[in-house]
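User: Show me sequence and structure for the first protein, then do the same for the second.

Assistant: Starting with the first protein.
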Amino acid sequence: MTLLEKIGVVHPIVQAPMAGTSTPELAAAASNAGALGSLGVAAVDAAGARAMIAAVRARSQGPLNVNLFVHAPAVQDPQREADWLAAMAPLFERFGAEPPQALRPIYTSFLEDEAMLAMLLEEKPEVVSFHFGLPQAEKIAALKSAGCLLLSTATSLAEAEAAKAAGIDAVVAQGWEAGGHRGVFDPAAADDRLGTMALTRLLVQRAGLPVIAAGGIMDGHGIRAALDLGAIAAQLGTSFVPCPESSADAAYRAALASEAAAHTVITEAISGRPARSLPNRFTEWGEAVGLPHPGYPMTYDAGKVLIAAAKGAGETGYAAQWAGQGAPLARAMPAADLIATLVAEMDGAER
């Protein structure tokens, strides 16, 4: 019996947390269908996260994964931030909006969020997972004492080894193909950009922890391949974006169903950390701007204001439309139907 089976996960499928896109409705539907439903709470405070957890619990008694960002605390550079805002000024002007006067570290790292820890210790979700790094030893010990199973993203063997040393229960092997934010612990360090297949097998062989494969997996055949590599499950994100339970807007859904899905790009211009996105006007601007960004999450402060200004003017080409390299294989259907389809494909691949 795998770790996930022990907490009531029936199928070896994890619906990725996808902060900003995953919803309580999506997480509940995934858990009710036998997968592990997930919430990304990086963009909300402890009260907001508690409300999201309650919304899932009202819809499902299945296991729940709550995902946190554990990035290094922000270091601000006023000159770099001013230069970035100046470069963005023509974009804001195009939409009749004013750029921010200054940038803020809009997301609090779990490293500094004691209120979030206290909330988790009260709510006791079955799974707590970490992205961008690892929390302090005392936070890990407290969550484990509360009965939470702990997962951490790893993009390399070194990160997986750090997770094991810290007491993490299993790692999510995030390949270069994955959509959304790259989970590297140190974005300034060299990234070997290991693909999902190579990384999964490497971690299965060498990390000494159960492995969940993530990145570019879109159907049951991909899940079966991950299991054949020794993973205990596969985590899928882009597959769930077209589900009616996700918060993706009409423009995001249309872009995912378009030719753009075949040409995903890694950009740092939207948030200040590398993330795989559908190509759009924002990613094109990021490639051309030629300036160092202000870092994460200050860059995202500017990005979110621009996204809102553009959307308010009817322009949807400036948006965070995260998607992995398997995006052309996305299918629009309710989450329960998607999971049933994935299981049927997975069982067929086994035969």
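Switching to the second protein now.
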Amino acid sequence: MPGFILIGLGGGLASAVLFASAASGGGAGRMLLYLLVPLPSLLSGLGWGSAAAGVGALAGAAGVAAALGVKAAFMFFLSHGAPVAAICYLALLARPVDAKAEPGTTTLEWYPPGHLVTAATLIAGALATISLLVLGPDLDALRTLLRDLIQNVFLKEVPGLRDRPLSEDEIAAITEFALYALPAGFAIMWLGSFLLNLWLAGRITQTSGRLIRPWPDLAAMTFPRWLALALAAAFALTFATGYPALLGSGFAGAFFLAYVLMGLAIVHFVTRGKPSRPFVLWGVYLSLLILNTWAALIIALLALMEPFLPLRRSGPPAAPGSD
């Protein structure tokens, strides 16, 4: 049996165990396990090829089906198995380019990291939309589900609200807000955790010598030009009603996080070789933790303005393996 099949089986079953444990666990441990679900399959895919990731997707779905049933297996394959296989396939895409070095040598051009983030962003927006269809067949069913969760879980867990019950109008307002914020929240959570696992898997395989492609210059990544227009269109859709607004919310959340990451890449790029680099980076990341949404908005605007600014048109070269 080829080695990539065994590695793919191991990675897929490890992801299935994490998924099943997260589904049956509780509290913060459950969330941590869920966030780590893609990691084993990404390790096998980046280190042994996209075929190993494809084997892992099928093996993981089979393992989840045996433990939790067919519906859970479908959700695993849709949210983890298939995206991991697709992203690993794209990450390992390469084409030969003309080399001016030694005769007989071939230089490979690898799939750009910015396009890889774009692909993951589109997957996140699509999954946010699909998750709503799975949760409820229509908006009224979704409202009822969210209302029950808010009344029976959220309001009982918040100490200040247990002593002061909310009125029906207040609960209805919270439910309506949660309905339209849910797709964006899901897309942001999925995309952030997936890209973090992708980066971690890349670093692990690079350290072990198994990474098939060279480490990209993440700070110099760029997005396709149409992505900014897609962000504007998704944001405009959020002003609609019904499912179009939910669709816009999911994609707007994913695109927004993508541009926050692009803004951070710009900060990393422009501070290369400067003595103030550690202080600037610490300040930026602390502002994200403290100011949160406002800091993220400013960083995303920086990325959106970058085509009109000469921020990354020149700068010191990246050190090998650096970000």
